[in-house]
Design a protein that fits this description.
Layout: H1 3-15, H2 23-30, E1 42-43, H3 46-56, E2 62-67, H4 73-81, E3 84-89, H5 95-104, E4 108-112, H6 120-130, E5 136-142, H7 148-159, E6 165-171, H8 172-179, H9 189-197, E7 198-206, E8 211-212, E9 219-226, H10 237-249, H11 255-261, H12 269-278, H13 292-302
Parallel strand pairs: 2-3, 2-5, 3-4, 5-6
Antiparallel strand pairs: 1-8, 6-9, 7-9
Helix pairs in contact: 1-2, 3-4, 7-9, 10-11, 10-13
Bound molecules: S-adenosylmethionine (SAM).
S-adenosylmethionine (SAM) is lined by residues 38-43, 67-71, 73-74, 88-91, 114-116, 142, 144, 147.
Length: 303
């Protein structure tokens, strides 16, 4: 047994009751070094891994898409609980760790690619074609920090109609932005998107000590239960989100001025003032005070 493996074994004995284990031990046995550029901060606490899988409510009728399986610890638990798991990992150097798992679990596919380049819709249809018993699609991930927002926006904007839920571990500060109600400093364009597509809540916080290498910030797990029918039905969601983006691009400005500066076709400052008055909203309001219902109503009046 190598020195590292021995240290790992001792550590497992020592921390057994806390269910800690050493990702460094796994990495050492495969000669793998974590890559900061890929956000490779691995969980070192099985209790946290179990809590994330519990929060996802993955079960035998679910197809789970895991983004970034890393060393495969959460992947293993997901494969034991879910009907099928498609794990998408950008780093091919993790194949010596992940390929044996795919051999052990016939319900696990590992796809080596950038999640942003994968056709998720096709992936879901292909798997469901051979396994029609899979009723729900759930996305679960300890997301890499460097690309959190694009991944969340991609799943919501492009695939919400195909998904039941998303359970993501993200930076604590990002988690608060995702679930923020209107009015607060954390509220932004992404909060409006999350509120439009899902019913979201923070499940629990995870201290930075639960990862190796240890990041500078703490994390939180957020669960987004995707609406089958969104809370509002604007005539054009595309236009509504253009309004949302425009109003948060200059968040210190009044909504009227942000929209006027955005030069949306056919939308003058006078139109915006009139639309706000029609809805009984003060013309001096800032975008950060408008909820998804107001954005939808304004979008219908202005589009
Ligand atoms: N799931 C593991 C865990 O909880 O310990 C690893 C999580 S680690 C924070 C993020 C993982 O996402 C890494 O394995 C990293 O290689 C992978 N990753 C980073 N960028 C990715 C991308 N664009 N597409 C797919 N996977 C990516």
């Amino acid at each position: 047994m190598s020195k590292q493996a021995e240290k790992d074994k001792l550590e497992r004995q020592e921390y057994g009751s806390h269910e800690r284990f050493s990702p460094y031990g796994i990495m050492a046995s495969y000669g793998f070094s974590p890559k900061k550029a890929l956000g490779q901060n691995f969980l070192n606490d099985l209790t946290v891994v179990k809590k994330i899988v519990d929060a996802s409510e993955a079960g035998p009728e679910d197809l789970v898409i895991e983004v970034g399986p890393g060393l495969g610890v959460m992947t293993t638990l997901l494969a034991e609980r879910a009907g099928h798991v498609a794990a998408i990992e950008i780093d091919r150097e993790l194949s010596p760790v992940l390929d044996p798992l795919a051999l052990k679990y016939p319900n696990l596919d590992v796809i080596y690619d950038d999640v942003m380049r994968v056709n998720i819709g096709k992936l879901i249809s292909d798997i469901r074609l051979s396994k029609p018993e899979l009723k729900h699609v759930k996305v679960v991930a300890n997301l890499p920090y460097y690309i959190t927002t694009p991944i969340i926006m991609m799943f919501l904007e492009q695939y919400a109609g195909k998904l039941t839920s998303l359970t993501f571990m993200v930076q604590k500060e990002v988690a608060h932005r995702l679930v923020s109600p209107p009015g607060g400093s954390e509220y932004g364009a992404i909060s409006v998107s999350v509120a439009y597509y899902s019913n979201a809540h923070i499940c629990f916080d995870v201290p930075s000590s639960c990862f190796v290498p240890r990041p500078k910030v703490d994390s939180s797990v957020v669960n987004m239960s995707v609406y089958t029918v969104p809370p509002v039905s604007p005539r054009s969601t595309d236009f509504m989100f253009r309004l949302v983006r425009a109003s948060f691009s200059q968040r210190r400005k009044m909504f009227v001025n942000s929209i006027a500066n955005a030069s949306l076709p056919g939308v003058s400052k006078e139109c915006v003032v009139k639309a706000l008055e029609t809805l009984g909203i003060s013309p001096s309001i800032r975008g950060e005070s408008l909820g998804v219902k107001e954005f939808a109503a304004l979008s219908d009046l202005l589009s």
